[in-house]
Amino acid sequence: MSEILSVLSHNLWLFILISFMFASVIGSFVNVVIHRLPVMMKRQWQQECNQYLAEYHPEQLQQLGAEKLNEAIDPYPAKYNLIFPSSTCPKCHNPIKPWHNLPIIGWLMLQGKCASCQSPISPRYPLVELIAGLLISVLAWHFGPSGQFLFASLLTFALIALTGIDLDEMLLPDQITLPLLWLGLMLNLQGQFATATDALIGAAAGYLSLWSVFWLFKLLTGKEGMGYGDFKLLAVFGAWLGWQMLPLVILLSSLVGALVGISLIVTKRLDQSNPIPFGPYIAAAGWIALVWGQDIVDWYLATL
């Protein structure tokens, strides 16, 4: 293992190439998480609601019909998770051949269409794979073959999944954010990205800062300006990077979010009353802080 790390350390471009190829494969699985995890969560919520009605309001359950409530809320098979069933075309339900599942290349080979029914395949699938490959390549260049690279890559894959789910569902699942939060705190016990004290303060400050903004906005307007998942995601970056990076993450995410929101309203692609997910902007800002945060802070302080 040490010999392999030595070779990769002296051949950075080889390491970057291998990282891109590996990341694009993982990006294919990230697509699965983006699509399937919300379905799994909705099924779990339905089951919990049914159990609550059966225990506390059996008369309502009888009126509504137990069989109807137990029906799946989606067209997918009864056994449905991140592994099963294998990938199929959403239109004709024919299995996708393994070579058509090759990251990026498979979509290009099919020219963006199902091999069986010729239905269009969303370009988002190869785009997620490409983004994963590019982001991990940047991490490979920045961190080199190291433990920091491995952990930063894991965080990056999770952020891509969170971004896709939030764009689709306006939801940042606890199944991803909470493990990331605890992992960041555990890693920084050994000072991987920040000191343990800075990480602990960062996790608390990240959560409480947006939590405070949420309640202030709600008291002033009577409306909810953001979701609890946003608090947890900012807490994740506090736990991973320390409290010192939180102002940069908040500033960058707010700036980009405002610019995108205004541009969508000006181009009439978004009504002012429609909400937009804030999670993708926090994720992007946090990733930038992960790679270039200290450089940005040092540059800013030098200009004062």
Automatic annotation (TrEMBL):
Membrane topology according to the record: Multi-pass membrane protein
Keywords: Cell inner membrane, Cell membrane, Hydrolase, Membrane, Methyltransferase, Multifunctional enzyme, Protease, S-adenosyl-L-methionine, Transferase, Transmembrane, Transmembrane helix
Cellular compartments per GO CC: plasma membrane
Prepilin type IV endopeptidase peptidase domain: residues covered: 154-262
Principal location listed in the UniProt entry: membrane
Alphabetical GO biological process terms: methylation; signal peptide processing
Membrane-crossing segments per the record: 12-34, 149-167, 176-193, 199-221, 233-266, 278-301
Catalyzed chemical reaction(s): Typically cleaves a -Gly-|-Phe- bond to release an N-terminal, basic peptide of 5-8 residues from type IV prepilin, and then N-methylates the new N-terminal amino group, the methyl donor being S-adenosyl-L-methionine
GO MF annotation terms: aspartic-type endopeptidase activity; methyltransferase activity
Function (record text): Plays an essential role in type IV pili and type II pseudopili formation by proteolytically removing the leader sequence from substrate proteins and subsequently monomethylating the alpha-amino group of the newly exposed N-terminal phenylalanine.
Family: Belongs to the peptidase A24 family.
Name of the protein in its database record: Prepilin leader peptidase/N-methyltransferase
Organism: Shewanella salipaludis
